[in-house]
Write a structure and sequence with these properties.
alpha/beta, 7-stranded antiparallel sheet, 50% helix
Length: 1231
């Protein structure tokens, strides 16, 4: 990095002979004016005029503007006019006051033989174009020619003191005669060795003669002599301050790769909504940059024309200032600094921002502002207390939290809407696929479980497989297809299989004849008989028993006995060990005595048998007990007869008897009464089942009913004619995965399968994220409405809260002495209030920077002013550099080093550095590649992340930015024109053809036409005229006398904007009718950037005045792009002028195969997709009436939900558009 810094220092110091502040060989009317030529132009000597200006006299007349009787005065006036225009241009471009009166001159050679001829002192002056006279007045304090002093030190090896270098001569007399004497004494006591010429005391200004190389050779080495010469001219000294910064930077001894690390910081956590205080409008790309900067990132911001750079910068400065941080905006373009300052002032920050264009002439205004700030501190306290700062801050935080909450919900919705991770298609796409007409009237079957294992690729494979299988199925259509559908997989079937199947089928139909012979034609009856025989075989019941009808009648007796046994099992078990005959006799006796109460009473009281009986009949009576004894006896007989000795075995026997009985009754019911007939049935069933079993190797059949429903020849015909198709079909089925087979079992229709899976996909995604359904309720629309009101509310609160924070910072750290008197700011106020011995701004900053930054946390200045005013310290938390593409890297780097963090803004598609007013030292080839990079923007782009601002706010119509958007910005710029503008019949580009001639690099016909056009333009409109060369610009400037009009060439128009831009092409045939195409800088490498700048300056209208039709430009052989794009632009302008509309589409990062907008346009009337800032435009009678925003590309490509649902619809409504929403989900539901 040290090598790079040294190279940059050499470029800035520029002690070469090309530096006009060191060696001025001759005057040139655009930049330098010999003061001696004013001698007695107004009956005063040039010395007397100089003395009046030196003394500070206001508006000293120096020459008449125009005098028909005095040719000399007219010549002088013409020269002064050229100098005046150059000075005004520099002021407008950079804000620098570089017009100086150089006096006296030093002439000679340094010790190293370097020649010089330059002013020793500079007096800043202001050239005034009065009504009748040219006037001149002093505009600051005298200063040394810094370039001379630096060269003197360098070439003579002498170190001058800082006090000497910073001498401002405030204590010297303002009478020129006295000053000369005082200055003579001052030099005698200094280290400067200069010969003080006696001519200086003669009160006469000498003629500034033209020098050549031979004159330089005559100069004596080591002798420097003062001359009584004075030059009024453009002498910029600011670059020397930047050069001095490099001395400090070189002392740091940076490592070689340090530049890459200087601004690299570890990023903080994600920025919350409450962390942003943005008082101005902001779009999504701007907010993204602001968040990154707040996280600690240093960035390069590519800001195309009209992309809101100044708005971004103002918001960023306000945001940082609200946090108590210090911000410096650096730009060499005055207009850019003024625009940001204007925006800061709009939100009340003007008092807290220090704008310094020229560190000498702006000091008074700056010091007055500082004084006013100090005097306002007590008022700031009172205002803050009245506003209730705590309440405002709480409301600000609550609003921010609400925005964050709504945005989080909408982000979840947006993410879910476009998330493809689960199924390979987003919910948005699935809605439109499900709504496709090919699914109309199709049923949806339940495939939810299967669908979750699919993605869209595998679904496509399933669909393809099913379609192939369906093609086979269509070929397999046949009368017997239902039977063949029962086959097992035929993949392995061969010709042998075919023969075997043929035999089996024939055998089956033989059985069919037998079946029918037995009267089993009806499948129900046949199945009943067959089932009966199967059951008999399973039960292993003898046929004889089935036909023993008598034994069936005994079953009821057996069943009754078992029932009694079961009911009295305990008693029967007890009886098993008893002599039943005796017991039964005792019971009979007791029963017989019951007829006589007396006898029975005597019996119970005297007979021991009664006591025994009582143990048996407990809980019952004698008669019932006797019945139970007899039942037990019967059961014993049955046990012996049927061979069972327990209740469980008895039950089994009973079940067997009942089965036999049931089967027998079933046989009887089928009309079978004889055993031989039944045996024939059995044989038929066995043959039938054997046949079925054989067929089951090839078919999923339980019987032959399906086969029997066809004729034999039909089945065999299918086998013979469709066999290969069967095998092919089943081979495809066999290739299905287990998951596909699961679906195949439910449906073989590819459309039904696809539709059902898609519906399952949707169900799953909506279950996972219910917010997807919010578009069909009021939820999403309510979120959007809430977000709109919250964004507007926060912007207002940001402004109020910002001012509270800024005011509070001024008094937060007030110090007081022991008497209670305020001591803070006391000394600072004194220094900015005094009238004599006024400190330079730099000295005030060095001594009071902490207090000063509390009063003015935001600063705006040029790179030169920064170096002149701010010490080389990291005073600033953030340095913002604007228009960095036009700034030489060596000019901008020192300003950047004054910050801990940087944001570098510019546009690589616009002008590169090209200082027409200064000479740049170029070193021989260097190994350091960074020295080959010209612009600060390009240098920083090597190390810092780049971000593009995508909004466009300058042009009122799409046509004004359409050409550049297409050819320079890949259609990434987004413009929303006003509703009224887009329906206006007026064209925003006029193509006016004139018959001009190209003479002496000028086209007078075009110039006169432009003068005529200007008179017709509304007086309230600002007008810019741009040309390709300086002579044409000068011609138009001389013809047009209108303060509204600014005439520029393509080298110096960047940063300007006008209501109306007039473009003078100027190129034309010469008087001989020949066309000579010399495109100047437009034809150089990168020259197309100049065209880009030129055609993007207009807010409302571009008027192209040309002497050539586009096709006349012969640019096919042009080496570079500039001339070719000029031809294209002229053709574009001509088309737009003829009424063509430019509706360039924005490039989306994703293009959906299915778009809701396409479907709505196809199905609706008066709908168009022409406008790039909306998905659909509604039209009536050729005019746009409203917009429809869908969930297509426009929503998808937004960087955040805040942009999608906040910034974009709000911007549309602010431009008077009526906006509707349409969602793919609702379209699907309607379908």
């Amino acid at each position: 990095m040290q090598k790079l810094l040294k190279t940059y220092q050499k470029r800035l110091t520029n002690l070469s002979s090309r530096n006009k502040s060191l060696l001025l060989m001759r005057t040139s009317k655009n930049y330098f004016f010999d003061f001696e030529s004013l001698d007695f132009s107004l009956n005063k000597s040039a010395y007397e005029i100089l003395a009046e200006v030196f003394a500070g006299k206001k508006a000293v007349k120096i020459c008449t503007k125009l005098d028909p009787r005095d040719e000399k005065s007219n010549i002088l006036s013409s020269s002064l006019l050229q100098l005046f225009r150059t000075d005004q241009l520099i002021q407008a471009e950079r804000g620098a006051m570089d017009l100086q009166l150089g006096f006296p001159f030093v002439k000679g050679k340094f010790s190293n033989e370097n020649s010089l001829r330059c002013p020793l002192l500079f007096l800043p002056v202001r050239l005034i174009r009065g009504e009748k006279y040219w006037e001149l007045e002093r505009n600051g304090e005298i200063q040394f020619n810094t370039s001379f002093l630096l060269a003197y030190q360098q070439f003579n090896g002498i170190k001058l003191s800082d006090e000497f270098l910073e001498e401002d001569f405030q204590d010297f007399s303002r009478e020129l005669d006295v000053f000369v004497v005082e200055f003579y004494e001052f030099l005698k006591n200094s280290s400067l060795e200069l010969n003080f010429n006696s001519e200086l005391f003669e009160k006469k200004i000498r003629f500034f003669e033209k020098f050549n190389k031979e004159d330089l050779e005559l100069l004596e080495q080591g002798k420097l002599k003062l001359q009584a010469q004075a030059i009024l001219g453009i002498f910029s000294q600011a670059g020397s301050y930047i050069a001095q910064d490099y001395n400090t930077l070189l002392e740091q001894n940076y490592d070689e790769n340090e530049l890459e690390n200087i601004f690299t910081q570890e990023l903080k956590a994600e920025i919350k909504e409450k962390d942003l205080h943005l008082p101005l409008e902001v779009d999504a790309s701007q907010e993204e940059v602001i968040k990154l900067v707040n996280q600690g990132a240093s960035l390069v911001v590519q800001g195309p024309p009209g992309s809101g750079k100044s708005q971004l910068i103002a918001n960023l400065m306000a945001d940082y200032a609200a946090k108590g941080k210090k911000v410096l905006l650096v730009c060499q373009k005055r207009a850019a600094l003024d625009m940001v300052y204007k925006r800061l002032a709009e939100v009340g920050m003007g008092a807290f921002a220090g704008l310094v264009h020229d560190f000498k002439s702006d000091r008074k205004v700056l010091f007055e502002k500082i004084k006013n700030q100090i005097d306002s501190i007590e008022e700031y306290k009172k205002e803050n207390y009245d506003l209730d700062a705590i309440f405002l801050e709480r409301e600000f935080n609550q609003t921010s939290m609400q925005i964050e909450k709504v945005c989080n919900e909408l982000s979840v919705f947006k993410s879910a809407l476009y998330d493809e991770s689960k199924f390979g298609k987003s919910a948005k796409e699935l809605y439109l696929i499900a709504a496709d007409s090919r699914f109309d009237n199709l049923p949806s079957i339940d495939l939810y479980r299967e669908a979750l294992q699919f993605d869209f690729d595998s679904l496509e494979k399933l669909k393809s497989s099913f379609e192939q299988i369906n093609a086979y199925q269509e070929k397999l259509e046949h009368a017997t297809k239902g039977f063949w559908d029962k086959r097992t997989n035929a993949t392995s079937w061969t010709n042998a299989t075919k023969r075997e199947l043929s035999a089996l089928i024939s055998q089956s139909f033989s059985l069919k004849n037998q079946v029918y012979k037995f009267g089993l034609n009806e499948p129900k009856r046949r199945e009943g008989v067959f089932e009966l025989i199967r059951n008999i075989k399973n039960e292993k019941v003898s046929i004889v028993r089935l036909f023993d009808f008598k034994s069936r009648e005994q079953i009821s007796e057996f069943a009754q006995a078992l029932s009694n046994y079961e009911a009295n099992e305990n008693l029967f078990l007890k009886l098993a060990g008893t002599t039943l005959t005796q017991l039964e006799q005792k019971v009979d006796k007791a029963i017989s005595l019951q007829n006589s109460a007396l006898k029975f009473a005597w019996y119970k009281s005297t007979n021991r048998d009664w006591k025994e009986l009582q143990t048996w009949i407990s809980g019952t009576d004698l008669t019932t007990f006797r019945t139970l004894i007899r039942d037990y006896n019967n059961l014993a007989v049955l046990q012996q007869k049927y061979d069972f000795d327990s209740l469980s075995l008895g039950k089994e026997k009973l079940k067997e008897f009942e089965t036999v009985k049931k089967l027998g009754e079933q046989i009887k019911s089928f009309g079978i009464h004889e055993i031989p007939v039944f045996e024939e049935y059995i044989q038929l069933v066995e043959s039938y089942e054997a046949n079925v079993n054989s067929l089951q190797s090839y078919f999923n059949l339980q019987d032959l009913n399906l086969l029997f429903s066809h004729e034999e020849f039909e089945v065999l015909d299918f086998l013979n004619s469709k066999f290969d198709l069967l095998v092919g079909h089943d081979e495809l089925v066999g290739l299905l995965s287990s998951l596909e087979k699961a679906v195949f079992e439910k449906t073989t229709d590819p459309k039904v399968a696809e539709f059902s899976v898609i519906i399952a996909f949707i169900e799953y995604l909506e279950e996972k994220e219910p917010l997807l359904k919010g578009v069909s309720s009021l939820k999403i629309s309510q979120f959007e409405r809430d977000l709109h009101s919250l964004i507007e509310k926060k912007k207002t609160l940001s402004q109020e809260n910002l001012l509270i924070q800024l005011k509070e910072t001024t008094y937060r750290y007030i110090d007081k002495n022991r008497l209670g008197n305020t001591t803070s700011y006391r000394e600072l106020r004194h220094q900015v209030s005094k009238k004599r011995s006024i400190w330079p701004i730099r000295k005030v900053l060095e001594n009071f920077h902490e207090e000063l930054f509390r009063l003015l946390p935001c600063w705006l200045a040029s790179p030169e002013t920064v170096s002149a005013v701010f010490p080389m310290e990291q005073y600033f938390d953030l340095v913002i550099f604007d228009e960095a593409s036009q700034c030489f890297a060596e000019n901008g780097l020192p300003a950047m080093m004054r910050g801990r963090q940087v944001l570098v803004a510019g546009d690589s598609k616009q002008l590169q550095p090209n200082d027409l007013y200064r000479v740049r030292f170029e070193e021989e080839e260097s190994e350091e590649y960074l020295t080959e990079i010209d612009s600060l923007l390009s240098l920083c782009s090597q190390f810092l992340p780049n971000h593009l601002l995508k909004g466009h706010y300058r042009s009122k119509t799409l046509e004004l930015i359409g050409f550049s958007n297409k050819h320079f910005y890949d259609n990434k710029l987004q413009l929303i024109p006003h509703f009224d503008e887009i329906n206006s019949p007026e064209t925003s580009i006029d193509f006016i053809k004139v018959e001009g001639l190209w003479e002496q690099q000028q086209n007078i016909v075009e110039a006169e036409k432009i003068k005529e056009i200007i008179t017709e333009i509304d007086s309230s409109k600002s007008i810019g005229v741009v040309t390709f060369n300086h002579p044409q610009a000068k011609l138009i400037q001389d013809l047009v006398d209108d303060e509204r009009v600014r005439v520029k060439n393509i080298e110096n128009i960047q940063g300007d904007e006008f209501d109306v831009l007039i473009f003078s092409v100027a190129y034309a045939p010469d008087s001989q009718g020949k066309l000579r195409f010399q495109f100047g800088t437009l034809g150089l490498a990168g020259g197309e950037n100049r065209l880009n700048v030129a055609v993007t300056r207009a807010r409302e209208k571009v008027i192209v005045v040309t002497s050539l039709e586009p096709e006349q430009l012969q640019v096919e052989t042009a080496t570079n792009l500039g001339p070719k794009l000029l031809k294209e632009y002229l053709a574009y302008a001509k088309r737009i002028s003829a009424g063509e509309k430019s509706m360039t589409l924005n490039v989306s990062q994703k293009s959906f195969a299915l778009r809701l907008s396409d479907k709505l346009v196809q199905e609706g009337e008066g709908l168009s997709t022409d406008l790039p800032f909306s998905d659909i435009a509604q039209m009536q009678e050729g005019l746009y009436t409203s917009l429809i925003l869908t969930d297509d590309n426009l929503l998808h490509q937004t960087v955040s939900s805040k942009e999608a649902f906040g910034y974009l619809p709000l911007a549309l409504k602010q431009k008077a558009w009526t906006v509707h929403r349409s969602w793919s989900r609702n379209y699907w539901l309607k379908r």
